[in-house]
Design brief:
The protein has one domain: Roll (Pnp Oxidase, Chain A). By secondary structure, the chain is of the alpha+beta class. The longest helix is centred in the middle third of the chain and has 16 residues. A hairpin with a 2-residue loop joins strand 2 and strand 3. It has 7 helices and 10 strands. Helix 6 packs antiparallel against helix 7.
Length: 209
C-alpha cells in the first residue's frame, strides 16, 4: 500500500479499533482463475500467539477453493472516507493553488488463510460475531433464539476462516499534509456536509491523537 510518512499509522490499538469498528472487510485471494474478492465480516481475536482474524462464509462461495490453496490472503478494512473540496481550504483565497482530494482511513492485513469445518468452532465464531453486533441493543438477538435444528442446518452451509495476522499496515489520509487553517476548514466543511465520522478523525489528527 502506498503510504507517505505523513499518512502512516502503525499503533496497534489504533489499527485494532478500526478493524473492530468497521468489521466488514474485502477479502482478496489469488487462484488459478485470477483474483477474487468478497465482502466478509470479521472478528479480531488477540491471542498469546498474536492477533487472528476469524470469519465464516458460504461453502458454495467460489473463493473457498482459492482460500484452500492460497499461501496468503489480503483483508482490507475501510474506515471513514469523504471527498474534500478545495473550497474548504483557506489557502484557496490566498493563492488558489489547491486541488480536490479524498480523505480515508484503511487497514490492510496479510496472512495465510486456514479453513475450518468443526461445528463447535463455527458456532463460537457466529456467536462472537453476533454478540459484537447486537451489543447495545435494547433487545439483542442471540443465536440461541433460533431453533437448534435450524442453526445446525445453517452450519452445514458454511465454512470457517481463520487468518493469523502476519503483516498489518494502516493509512490515515486525513489532511495531515495541509496547513492548520486548511485543516480547520476541512473539519468545518465536513461537519456541514454531515460527514461527522471523517470530521472527527481529522480533528483527532489535529490534536495529535
Amino acid at each position: 500500500m502506498y503510504t507517505p510518512p505523513a499518512f502512516e499509522e502503525a499503533r496497534p490499538e489504533r489499527l485494532r479499533d478500526l478493524i473492530r469498528g468497521y468489521p466488514l472487510a474485502t477479502l482478496v485471494t489469488a487462484g488459478p482463475g485470477g483474483l477474487t474478492a468478497n465482502l466478509v465480516p470479521f472478528v479480531l481475536a488477540e491471542t498469546e500467539g498474536g492477533d487472528v482474524l476469524r470469519a465464516h462464509m458460504a461453502r458454495a462461495n467460489d473463493q473457498v477453493a482459492s482460500l484452500r490453496e492460497a499461501a496468503e490472503a489480503l483483508v482490507i478494512f475501510q474506515g471513514p472516507q469523504a471527498y474534500i473540496t478545495p473550497s474548504w481550504y483557506e489557502t484557496k483565497k490566498v493563492h488558489g493553488r489547491v486541488v480536490p482530494t479524498w480523505n480515508y482511513v484503511v487497514v490492510q492485513v496479510w496472512g495465510k488463510p486456514q479453513l475450518i469445518a468443526e461445528p463447535d468452532w463455527l458456532m463460537a465464531q457466529i456467536d462472537h460475531l453476533t454478540r459484537n453486533q447486537e451489543a447495545g441493543r435494547s433487545e439483542p438477538w442471540a443465536v440461541t433464539d433460533a431453533p437448534e435444528s435450524y442453526i445446525a442446518s445453517q452450519l452445514h452451509a458454511i465454512v470457517g476462516l481463520e487468518i493469523p495476522v502476519a503483516r498489518i499496515e494502516g493509512k490515515w489520509k486525513v489532511s495531515q499534509n495541509q496547513p492548520e487553517p486548511n485543516r480547520q476548514g476541512v473539519i468545518r466543511g465536513l461537519r456541514e456536509a454531515a460527514a461527522e465520522d471523517m470530521a472527527a478523525v481529522v480533528a483527532d489528527s489535529v490534536r495529535g491523537v
